[in-house]
Write a structure and sequence with these properties.
Structural class: alpha/beta
Low-confidence stretches: 196-209, 301-350
Number of domains: 3
Radius of gyration: 22 Å
CATH topology of the largest domain: Rossmann fold
Mean pLDDT: 82
Bound molecules: guanosine-5'-triphosphate, zinc ion
Strand order of the largest sheet: 10-9-8-11-13-12
Number of helices: 9
Shape: globular
Number of strands: 15
CATH superfamily of the largest domain: P-loop containing nucleotide triphosphate hydrolases
């Protein structure tokens, strides 16, 4: 028997795993459709997209193989479900749609709460002046972020992003319409992900709702789109929230609060309360987190986790509420399904 081959699971379909081999033998396919060895089935070892695996018994002609073992994971994201992610590339547009600090903060907090490094990326910078970019740059630096600036029409900006992606496994996240598909299509020209331009609300994103897949960069490295991130379900309790703000982390590193369980509201001897820009966002999200925790203590299943909020112009939109980890552990799957349904229904209603 030949030695096992190292590979990465790039897609999961039912009980089949698409595995990209790290070092395929000369003249053999680099991608094999694999099953799990019975030994893995018996131990209940789950195989996820992103898993580094060992493949045995390759059938080169039929492009098949069997996964014999799974390497320990360095990280495990659950929405989208991907193992070993090195970084989250959080994409926001600097215009169209307008960059809203609170919405950006929600996404940042969600991304930070995974524990995986976050790289912020601001797209469509062809739509604003150099002055506006400089102003945002300065502002975001105060928040603790150094974004990459991108535009489809300004190729000189792309090498910096590429440098950040080569050799890593990256999940691309961000709200709808900011240019994620355009970005992935540009990085991986063979892919031709559908962009939002042609499709109306109903068509948008439908292809990807439940399916996660890793795509290979021609220069090396793997990228995943993350439909699950389109409406972030902020996943932290009131206790955890503070650590997802770089500003608070920095302040706490320099100076402690008087009380170890300080919520940084009215407590005496607080070193966080102050006139930094996102302090009000912290307060808003904390209030939500507390309300959420209380509500979860009262009820569980029926609540879908979304509330309607009146946006500018009286138009209604859905906003995610904070979910605590405990709640998520209990009912994660059913809840995700109902969130997807709620979004689906919201789109139909509009
Ligand atoms: N001006 C400008 N428009 C852009 C840029 N990148 C993308 N767009 C446009 O923005 C729109 C949305 O782009 P998509 O790539 O579909 O955005 P998305 O984030 O994938 O959206 P969803 O699929 O809804 O999640 C399209 O009309 C793009 O042509 C850019 O750099 N500059
Ligand atoms: Zn405090």
């Amino acid at each position: 028997m030949t030695a096992a081959l190292a590979g990465t699971v790039v897609a999961v379909q039912a009980n089949f795993y698409r595995v990209q081999l790290h070092h395929p033998p000369a003249n053999q396919p680099a991608m094999l459709l694999c099953t799990r060895r019975t030994r893995l089935l018996k131990t209940g070892q789950r195989v996820m997209v992103g898993d580094r695996v060992w493949v045995e018994e390759p059938d080169w002609q039929g492009q098949r193989g069997a996964i014999a073992s799974v390497e320990p994971r360095s990280s495990e994201l659950d929405r989208p479900a991907i193992a070993n992610v090195d970084q989250i590339l959080l994409v926001f547009a600097v215009a169209e749609p307008e960059l809203e600090p609170l919405q950006l903060t929600r996404f940042l907090v969600t991304a930070e709460s995974t524990g995986i490094p976050v790289q912020l990326c601001l797209s469509k910078c062809d739509l604003v002046t150099a002055g506006a970019i400089a102003a945002w740059q300065e502002r975001l630096a105060q928040w603790g972020y150094q974004p990459l600036w991108l535009s489809q029409n300004q190729p000189e900006r792309w090498p910096l992003l590429l440098k950040q992606l080569i050799g890593r496994m990256t999940v691309v996240a961000g709200p709808s319409g900011v240019g994620k598909s355009s970005l992935i299509n540009r990085l991986i020209p063979d892919l031709e992900l559908r962009t939002a331009k042609v499709s109306g609300k109903l068509g948008r994103g439908r292809h990807t709702t439940r399916h996660v897949e890793l795509f290979e960069l021609p220069q090396g490295g793997l990228l995943a789109d993350s439909p699950g991130f389109n409406q972030p379900e902020l996943i932290c309790s009131d206790r955890e929230l503070a650590q997802y703000f770089p500003e608070i982390r920095q302040r706490l590193a320099a100076d402690r609060c008087q009380f170890h369980d300080c919520r940084h509201l009215e407590e005496p001897g607080c070193s966080i309360r102050g006139d930094w820009e996102r302090y009000s966002h912290y307060q808003d999200l904390l209030e939500e987190a507390i309300a959420q925790t209380q509500q979860q203590n009262r009820s569980t299943q029926e609540d879908v986790g979304f509330k309607r909020k009146s946006a500018d112009g009286g138009k209604l939109r859905y906003e995610p509420k904070l979910q605590s980890r405990r709640y998520r552990r209990d009912s994660r799957r059913s809840q995700h399904q109902s969130v997807a349904e709620a979004l689906h229904n919201a789109e139909l209603e509009d």
